[in-house]
Amino acid sequence: MSRSESLNSEADGAARGAPISAALALILGAMVLLAVLLVIAIATWTGYRNTVDLLRQKAEIMVSSAVDQLHIHLDAAESQAHFVSQALATGWIDAADPDDLVTLLTGALAATPQITSIGYVDTALNLVAAERDEPTPVPIFARLADDPTWQTLLAEAQGASEAYWGGVSWRHVYGTAQLTRREPVRRNGGFAGFVYVEVGIPSLSELIGSLESDFGLNAFILAGDRNVIAHPMLQFGFPGLTPWHPVPGVSELGDPVLMAMSDPRARNDRVSALLGRSKGHAVDLGAETYVFVYREERGYGGDWLVGSYLTASDVLKEIERLFNAIVACAAIILLALLLAAWLGRRISRPVRLLAEQSRRVRNLDFEHTRPVPGSYIKELNEAAAAFNQMVDGLRERQMIRDLFGKYVPKGVVDELLKDKGKLRPRQVEATVLFVDVERFTTLSEDLLPQQIVDILNAYFSGVAAIIERHGGMITQFQGDAVLAVFNLPVADPAHADHAVAAASEIRRFVAENRFQDRQLRCRIGINTGEVVAGNVGATDRLSYTVHGDAVNVAARLDDLNKTLGTGLLISASTAGRLDGREIAVRSRGRVPIRGKQSEVEVFEVL
Description:
- Helices cover 46% and strands 25% of the residues.
- It is α+β, with helices and mostly antiparallel strands.
- It folds into 3 domains: 3-46 and 324-388, no CATH class; 77-314, 2-Layer Sandwich (Beta-Lactamase), CATH 3.30.450.20; 422-605, Nucleotide cyclase, GGDEF domain (Alpha-Beta Plaits, 2-Layer Sandwich).
- Helix 1 packs antiparallel against helix 11 (378-405) and helix 3 runs antiparallel to helix 6 (201-215).
């Protein structure tokens, strides 16, 4: 007797078992009903006192408001620094033209009131800046080549891979502490200087003060747990600040609640636990309890703590009652869960086995998938039999797909299985991608046959994965070349975009990797047009491929890269179907294409 016949026999024998619906309804229904009734009675009595969720929500809203406002405030300065940096890097603004540069800097300053100063320093330490003043900004021109501080800042910016916040510093001009953002400018592959913006530290206290007046938030920003970056009490200035002491300490501020925040003796662990996952704690100060909530911010040149606090006296009594109710509910629920767990394990063992084997099927792990045994419960027994029959069918289908998928595109295999072995010719618009390796013939002359095979296998594996990830299908490998088509056999309305995206990723993949310690370069041609797709060959030996003028043009565009000195060319028909928002192209004019009577406009993908 075969395994399938044995399973069917077991299923037939167990079909006389009691229905699972009756068993579960009788045993678990009474138990759950009793537990739920008891819990509902207690929860109804204590429900209106349940304020823990409200406390947590209020705490999260408080700290989120402060953090969001901080990000908005400083991100605007970051955006202006990036805008000016890009204008200089792309040549939109000539750094050698001080008038244009001052106009740009003044406009950026006017658009962002929190910025007190914005400037550009080139590699010769020539400074062009705009500083905020009334009634109009003041342009600044200076030569800083002999200033060791600026020499250090220039070297620091040159070594930076991206923009960064330089931390808190003192500005004598304003007599206040500043927060500085610096962004390197790189033009034509080289370091050309850096752009900086300065944001006054007092503006952060004004921001925090607005949260207090508008929403009643006692917000603050600390550097570590000792120094105060922003606080409502600082929005109108603070006496005694110097370049060596640019921000006040917590003990100097005069806020006793904030001073108690870092005092371990004042901690109230019971109230702190109510915050759940919110980062914070509670402290006792006199007869009052205060709840602090905060988040760590590390992106502004130091370790900051952004937070707020509120009084907890309004909710402590209700929370205490809630704790008592939770203890009673927990005891009842625990008893019910223990009983349910014992009964559930006895009843659900076949279900667990079915779920375990189903996960293996989901992961296509047919090798380790085992038959699910029968059960005395009718529905479980029927499910086991159906599952085992399904696995047998899937194993057979997967074996066919894996076998043919090594030689035939997976999309074609799926179509063959769906159409019971028939694959009719189709004429559709598709995007054809042709890619080959530059000078591979010359490279092959210095390699052993096995080295050539290893290089091509590594190269083809990466290229094939990229093409399939973008919805393409490879129809041919020709020497070192790959022919792929998009919009076949599965329809893809954005086939042109996906083909160009795949080509761009292929170029990055080839440029960023070495193949058997060899650096390769590739050329790619892409064209969109009508193609005929179908099986071609002898009666007993067929090959699925595409034909048509669109295929020939793609190959010609690939070859045209040698003449134009480009790496990725697309036809006008492809360029006209691009979405245009993410792919930048440049026309290379109309060029003659072998096999075409008229010239064809081609585009280079940037």
